[in-house]
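Exercise: predict the fold of this chain.
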Amino acid sequence: MRLALLTSCALLMMPAWAGAQTTQDSAADCVAMAEPAARLACYDRLHGRAEPPPAPAPADAASAAPLIARPPADDDSKLGPRWDLDGQRGTLFTPRAYKPVYLLPATWTDRVNREPGSPSPQHEVNTPLVLKSIEAKYQISLKSKFAHSLGGLPVSVWGGYTQSSRWQVYNGADSRPFRETNYEPELMLVTPLKLELPGWTLRMASLALNHQSNGRALPLSRSWNRVIGGVALEREDDWVAELRAWKRIREDADDDDNPDIADHVGRAELRVARYWGEHALSLQLRHSMRSGARSRGSAQIDYVFPLAGALHGQLQLFSGYGESLIDYNLRQTKAGLGVTIAGWR
């Protein structure tokens, strides 16, 4: 009986002993492997671990490259970053600086326009306005990109808005009115260029539909619409030149606030700017492109200099016709001093 019981126990233990012997033999096999990778794989199989997936093959350099290669931005360009001329595709409808944004707390004029008028009927004031020769002036100006291309062509679509105000802040006798505010929305088409000219590079051409008005009622209402074509050039030594010419969109005689505005404000404009460090100097010239008594225009100089951080000072000098719409046919000289915070570059 005892022998039979021992025999039964031995028979029951044989599978476990055999499994242990198999495990011992498998472990011995793993130890005997000289190749580290093979030995590690043997241990993983021995303990029931899944083999790691094979490492992915390195991607082919050509397949990893972007489908459309974009030219790098020109870090030395002034016009390139402003208008996405070097292949950039900035976020659409994001506001950006356009023309200079500034505040001139004090501007002085040698001629105060107390009796503004126009050749159009009912555009003459009956009583002289109460105005001071010193006032404040400010300008805000933004643009935004509406489309990267137009009909598959390398022509981007932009919208712009500029507003400038003349504020009689020192005129307490007349409740410190805003003497004149000009509103200027426009729609622009811009195409990038890179044409080398003697000493200059032609960087862009543009076409704009422009409206400008002062939002006033008669007899002070002034407005006009224009189609403006322009080109812009730059040099490596931080010079920028912009040439624009425009054609006025004619209005019915009964609706025309200022039929002779082009003979005063002009039909073309040249702006040349020089930048160095945190300083900038620009000259803007406008002319009627006519001779004799109709030869009129204006000149404006702006000098920007550093103050603190992003804040810069601005000195502005103007002489001629058209400093504002209400003064389009008044020849005057103005000087202002203040600060600029964006767009001066």
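Check your answer against the key: The longest helix spans residues 2-32.
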